[in-house]
Write a structure and sequence with these properties.
Length: about 900
């Protein structure tokens, strides 16, 4: 859909049901005045009431882009019959029917139906789980409701809502700008325009292309800078992007790389199965069996070779795994990331809020040339400010420099403090919340201060410029001042004078050095350092300009903010490092502060090199690639630097997980193998670009997710190894019997029963096996390592013959003293029992079953109990003999069966023992 056409299909009156093409001609939103828009939408710039919003939601429906949705039950049912394996079973059933083997044909049909029911049930539940998780990570919007700002799911936005937009937000709907401050949007997804588009509230005349409507905001475009208010004019399918299905929710429907690898493995096994079937068919003819009999038998043998339940198992294991991650605050947005997590070798993490608590508290202040200390914790306004030289409690008027610094912290500030259930919390940026709390401790009331000095304009903070500024006018004097706060080094660059004892003085080199030394001492104590300055402007000034904010400022002072490390992050960093995962801190903060936090958390040791953004600017990509793996801390970096670091790590063949929260972090999040967005502090743009969202913004959650990714992969490997071992054991049993000239130890129906019923009772429980050991003790799995590694393949090769030898040996023993039907029943039950014991031994790849306990996977116990019950029914239930060809067995026979079948458990335990001994002896 061309951009211009998309714009011409916008609807009017916020979601009426008439064709969108007609509505565009009636209401060209960009060319109307704001009053005309308010009138048409029956709204105003104060937003809607809750009742109005509810009525409009009922009238226009949710603000969603219609998509194909998840698969229906019918499509899932049909899917169960769409595989070469199923086609082979259908052919076998048809051949049996034509040969008037009605029992065989009926059993195959029943097995097909049972397999379909199980597959549909498992995949339907998996799909519902993933659908619920997608809703958890769906975009949210800030709107005015009943005069208050509310954060709600974007699907609840309705025409007439007033949006509150700032850097990093995704526009939830099409809207007209009401008010803007240096506001720009990235519309490249819609118009192809690569540069951010500056927005304005001014009315535009004429029929304009979509990209030229600079007073309009389009759904799903992102805010790259500034702040704005806008009134929603179109929602859902009536937006400019309404014809692009899935643009908002971005549902993941494709197969993951793991599923593709398993499908590829299945194809190879299928080819091998057909080859084996042809071999068995030919061998059977040579042994005197009829062609019809061997055709059915060979088809059943081919079925036994293929792990047909695997695709459904993978869907269930992945779905349950990501649900468990969500319960532990990690929401997976893209399924392939689950597989990649286990291979992660480097975590590039932000500092603030991820490794630290993001509970800023101002503990030291420098105003003029005086140092002060602050008491109190968190965002509580309780506490006091005292000079370092004495215990005098500072109040308003005690120091004009301290008064001015605290006023800057209050006025150049967009946060608020609220008392919630007895605890003070910040609405907005935690750094700004800490400055408000500091002002309270001096005795300044932020509400009164803002009332006496109303804001005229604002230069919003950006990671590029590292400062923000507001233009305020004093009501009493009429004086206009530009108040600036930000990184202390940036602020100091903009200053040519300093306020000391209320007087303006030249800022000479000696004073600059004193300020820098004070800032460095704060940073060495792991304090984040913020600088404050101002500039007097003519009284008639109405707009804040960057050119004025970046020169001729009067320096006032510094805040030193403590943000302590999370104790759980320190433990997680140590666990990651033990696992062979490198942890890097990439922060926009000062190098000294970053190094101090890195030292406290164990990322680096004291004195190790810190690379700054300026250092990176002087490095070529080749130089960065050479050193990147040896650096633990990158400080004072921009999002562009972060992207280069990730790129260099990937060129060094590292598997990189990187955290981000800002709109400019999106390129690095997309480039990384695992992009991790912050759920609390992160922007909607960052969340959309990420593979995983942390709902608690905690570094420990990343490490926990990596461990869960390893658990999921090891469980899938466990299931595949179980299926291939038992299936190969069946095939070896059949081939060996034919080669040795023995009677067939199993009927076709018996083979199908064991493969589709006995196996089916164990695979899902094995796929959900709980963790038995600290998987973070081991290094990351090579990203290109196959589903079955060398160790797994060796165990399959060693254990499958045990199953074949045990089954055939007991079959021959029973033939010596019993009928062929009796011996075949014993072989049937022996092979089933081998699978039960193999399921138990497969629960751990290294640990003994006696170490992990027989009862720690209750789901497997239920599955095995059901499998044993079904097996007993197949042997003893009246009417089972004509279906399976079985006869009732004596109790003593079950002792023989258990003794022989348990050999696979004994052999596997010996293999594990040898593995553990070799592991302990390894250097």
């Amino acid at each position: 859909m061309a951009a211009s056409n998309a714009g011409d299909k916008m609807q009017g009156k916020g979601g009426a049901s008439q064709p969108a093409e007609q509505k565009t001609e009636e209401i060209p939103w960009h060319s109307l005045t704001l009053d005309e828009i308010y009138q048409r939408l029956s709204a105003d710039d104060e937003g809607l009431t809750a009742d109005q919003a509810e009525r409009r939601l009922q009238e226009h429906g949710p603000n969603l882009i219609e998509s194909g949705g998840g698969p229906s039950l019918t499509s899932l049912a049909l899917k169960q019959f769409q595989s070469p394996l199923i086609y082979m079973l259908m052919v076998a059933a048809l051949i049996s029917l034509l040969a008037q083997h009605f029992i065989d044909s009926g059993v195959i049909a029943a097995v097909l139906l049972l397999n379909a029911v199980i597959g549909v049930s498992q995949e339907w539940r998996a799909e519902k789980t993933l659908e619920a998780l997608r809703k958890l990570s769906a975009p949210r919007a800030r709107v005015l409701r009943d005069g208050e700002i509310e954060v709600l799911p974007a699907e609840q936005v309705v025409p007439g809502d007033v949006l509150m937009l700032e850097t990093g937000d995704l526009a939830p709907a099409d809207a007209r700008v009401i008010e803007s401050h240096e506001f720009a949007m990235d519309e490249s997804a819609l118009t192809g325009e690569s540069e951010p588009v500056q927005k304005s509230h001014e009315k535009l005349d004429g029929l304009l292309a979509l990209a030229e409507r600079q007073n309009m905001i389009w759904s799903s475009t992102s805010v790259t800078g500034g702040r704005a208010r806008a009134i929603v004019v179109q929602t859902g399918m009536q937006t400019a992007l309404g014809e692009i299905a899935g643009e908002v929710q971005k549902a993941v429907r494709g197969r993951t790389p793991l599923q593709k690898r398993v499908a590829s493995l299945g194809s190879y096994i299928g080819i091998a199965a057909v080859t084996v079937a042809v071999f068995i068919f030919s061998l059977g003819l040579l042994r005197g069996y009829t062609a019809l009999e061997m055709m059915v038998f060979a088809a059943a043998a081919a079925v036994s070779a293929i792990p047909e339940g695997l695709p459904a198992v993978i869907s269930v294991v992945l779905a349950v795994g990501v649900r468990r991650m969500a319960e532990k605050n990690a929401i997976i947005r893209r399924l392939p990331s689950v597989e990649t997590l286990g291979s992660t070798t480097v975590i590039c993490s932000d500092k603030t809020g991820t490794i630290t608590r993001n509970e800023m508290t101002a503990t030291r202040v420098r105003a003029g040339n005086q140092e002060y200390r602050l008491t109190g914790d968190g965002f509580s306004p309780e506490g006091k400010i005292t000079p370092e030289s004495n215990e005098k409690n500072m109040e308003p008027g005690s120091s004009p420099d301290l008064d001015m610094l605290m006023a800057i912290g209050v006025l150049a500030n967009n946060a608020t403090l609220e008392l919630d259930d007895g605890q003070w919390k910040v609405q907005g940026n935690p750094t700004e919340g800490a400055l408000l709390a500091a002002a309270h401790k001096l005795g300044l009331n932020p509400v009164d201060t803002n009332h006496d000095n109303p804001r005229l304009d604002e230069i919003p903070f950006s990671s590029k410029f590292k400062y923000m500024a507001t233009l305020n006018r004093n009501r009493e004097t009429g004086d206009a001042r530009l108040l600036v706060k930000g990184g202390w080094d940036r602020i100091l660059e903009f200053c040519d004078s300093i306020q000391i004892n209320g007087e303006k003085r030249p800022l000479d080199e000696e004073i600059r050095n004193e300020i820098a030394e004070a800032a460095e001492s704060y940073a060495a104590d792991a304090l984040r350092v913020i600088g404050g300055a101002y500039r007097e402007l003519p009284e008639d000034t109405e707009e804040a300009e960057r050119s004025e904010a970046e020169q001729s400022l009067i320096f006032v002072g510094l805040w030193g903010l403590m943000d302590p490390p999370r104790p759980e992050a320190i433990e997680a960093i140590a666990a990651a490092q033990r696992s062979g995962i490198s942890v890097m801190m990439i922060t926009g903060d000062q190098g000294t502060t970053a190094a101090a936090i890195a030292d406290r958390t164990g990322i680096t040791r004291r004195g190790e090199r810190v690379v700054t953004g300026n250092d990176l600017d002087g490095m070529s990509d080749e130089e960065l690639s050479r050193i990147v793996k040896d650096i633990g801390v990158f400080a004072r970096v921009s999002p562009i630097h972060k992207f280069r670091i990730v790129e260099a790590l990937e060129q060094a063949r590292e598997v990189v997980a990187v955290t981000g929260d800002g709109v400019n972090d999106a390129p690095a999040l997309k480039r990384a193998d695992i992009g991790v967005a912050m759920g609390i502090a992160g922007t909607e743009v960052a969340k959309e670009a990420a593979d995983m969202v942390l709902t608690d913004d905690n570094f420990a959650t990343i490490v926990g997710a990596i461990e869960q990714g390893r658990i999921i992969f090891s469980n899938l490997r466990r299931v595949i190894m179980f299926l291939i071992t038992t299936n190969l054991g069946e095939i070896l049993t059949l081939i060996a019997a034919l080669i040795l000239g023995m009677p067939l130890p199993l009927t076709a129906v018996m083979i199908l029963w064991i493969n589709l019923v006995t196996d089916g009772m164990s695979v899902i429980p094995l796929g959900l096996e709980p963790k038995h050991e600290d998987l973070l003790r081991y290094p990351p799995r090579p990203v290109k390592e196959g589903i079955l590694n060398r160790t797994s393949i060796l165990r399959v090769i060693m254990l499958a013959p045990v199953i074949a030898i045990g089954t055939l040996g007991l079959f021959q023993y029973m033939l010596n003293s019993n009928t062929e039907e009796y011996a075949r029943t014993v072989a049937f039950c022996t092979l089933a029992a081998f699978e039960w014991f193999r399921a138990v031994s497969t629960r751990s790849m290294k640990l003994s079953i006696f170490a992990i306990g027989f009862f720690t996977n209750r789901l497997l116990l239920l599955g095995l109990s059901a499998g044993i019950g079904l097996q007993l029914m197949a042997v003893y239930l009246p009417g089972s003999e004509p279906v399976f060809g079985t006869v009732p067995l004596a109790l003593t026979d079950w002792f023989f069966i258990a003794a022989v079948a348990s050999s696979v458990l004994v052999v596997d335990e010996l293999i594990k023992l040898v593995y553990r001994i070799r592991e302990r002896r390894a250097p």
